[in-house]
Amino acid sequence: MLILAGKLGYQTRGFAEAAERLGAETIFATDRCHQLDDPWGDHAIAVRFERAQEAARQIAADLKDGVPGAVIALGDRATPAGAYAARALGVKGNPPDAVEACRNKLRQRQVLAEAGLQVPDFFSFGVGDDSSRVLPRVKFPAVVKPLTLAASQGVVRVNDKEEFERAVGRVRALLGSPEIQAQRDAATGRLLVESYLPGNECAVEGLLNAGRLRVLAIFDKPDPLEGPYFEETIYVTPSRLSAAMQGAIADCLARATRALRLTTGPVHAEFRVNERGPWVLEIAPRPIGGLCSRALRFGPSGAALEELLLRNALGLPGADWEREEGASGVMMIPVPRSGIFEGVEGMDEAERVANVTEIRITARLKDYVEAWPEGSSYLGFIFARANAPGEVEMALREAHAKLRFRFSPRMIVQHPATAGWFARDDGSEKGWIREGQDDGRNGEAGRAKRKD
To answer: I need a labelling partner for 133 at 20 to 30 A (CA). Which of 13, 154, 255, 398 fits?
Structure first.
């Protein structure tokens, strides 16, 4: 089994453990530094995901003595390289150009709109364009977003021209940050503007075989995602939407995958649902991200989603297992404010909440964490299982209410060369910000803090 994944991805260990249970050998291709000698101890092939075709050639050259039985890519950045690698190795996979279309939000919108699917009105403009000239095309309320970032990073709702100007400046600053520029993605040069869609959101986990879709789970998102930012929190399944609406969502996803020409493997999709039915927000040819897959169990033994996907990819028995009976869910613990993560209190109380099965804090102590829209990484995950979706939701909310997260502000230090004041995130010089400089993230409050 060849697994393409980010070197720090949450899911990698879960797939490796599932493969070991199945007796399958795993080979990794990751975006680790190629100049270091196996720093993660996983013998991974070092590739650059932003150079997808080059990564595929590197993988094929390294595996010339043995072709894997299947290829799976974890995370949005790895999916194009995974598709090219599958083609180069001659194993089952999605067409690379189809995966490339999914990776770019503008191209995906264009494909789905041409196929007659319900998508919000949209247009794109360059990061360097004069936003005042773009304004006449904006129909408020609207949503501004980057073309490729995941987890709602950089996604902002705007209700008038002043909010639009501020949001564009903020997203420009995010896309110009060293962390984003290091991804070397040409799509960071453009922004997408969409009409805001009222309604509730849901997520769908699906599996494709020869173009035929199987819905594994529909997750409700009971928290209103109305902006200005769109960090996700609670997922609960089974859905409490009507059977008719769930059927419409499944049909919409099947039509969308056909339009995008996806044929193989896991699919994760996001929808808005209102009186006009389901609207496609996003479709990705990968499994659900983070640790959220732990909310799903399949078959008589309660197998993890990772095991089900590997059984399907390798043609092993059990690939048709259904999700367990009962309800389950996960809360992705949002970041309430940016700062240095100093720890959490109340874990014992939260873990004792009825129906809570696990709490995992994934944020590292002393790391700087950012709130949305600049942020994209959660503090951790809370999991619950019960007889009914409402009980799961209640347990997740109650457990979260007992957790108290501690943060400290950025360090304020004096630069020895200039005697000016600077903010520093984590002790590295990449975070230097000159006093009075608006970094697009802190606003007036940030500037006042720097002056202090």
So the answer is: 154
Give the Cα-Cα-Cα angle 369, 382, 318 (nearest 5 degrees).
120
Residue-wise pLDDT tens for the chain (452 aa)?
999 998 656 788 889 899 999 999 999 998 866 555 555 455 689 999 989 999 999 999 999 878 899 999 998 999 999 999 999 999 999 999 999 999 999 999 999 999 999 999 999 999 999 988 999 999 999 999 999 888 899 999 999 999 999 999 999 999 998 888 877 777 788 999 999 999 999 999 999 999 999 999 999 999 999 999 999 999 999 999 999 999 999 999 999 999 999 999 999 999 999 999 999 999 999 999 889 999 999 999 999 999 999 999 999 999 999 999 999 999 999 999 999 999 999 999 999 999 999 999 999 999 999 999 999 999 999 999 999 999 999 999 999 999 999 999 976 565 555 545 445 444 433 444 433 333 333 333 333 333 33
Select the CATH number that applies to the domain covering 2-100 from these four: 3.10.20.70, 3.30.9.10, 3.40.50.20, 3.90.1680.10. Answer: 3.40.50.20
Q: Where are the domains of the chain?
A: 2-100, 121-195, 326-408, 411-451
95-113: b (≥16 Cβ within 10 Å) or e: bbebbbbbbbbbbbbebbb
434 vs 445: CA distance, rounded Å: 15
The architecture CATH gives domain 326-408: 2-Layer Sandwich (3.30)
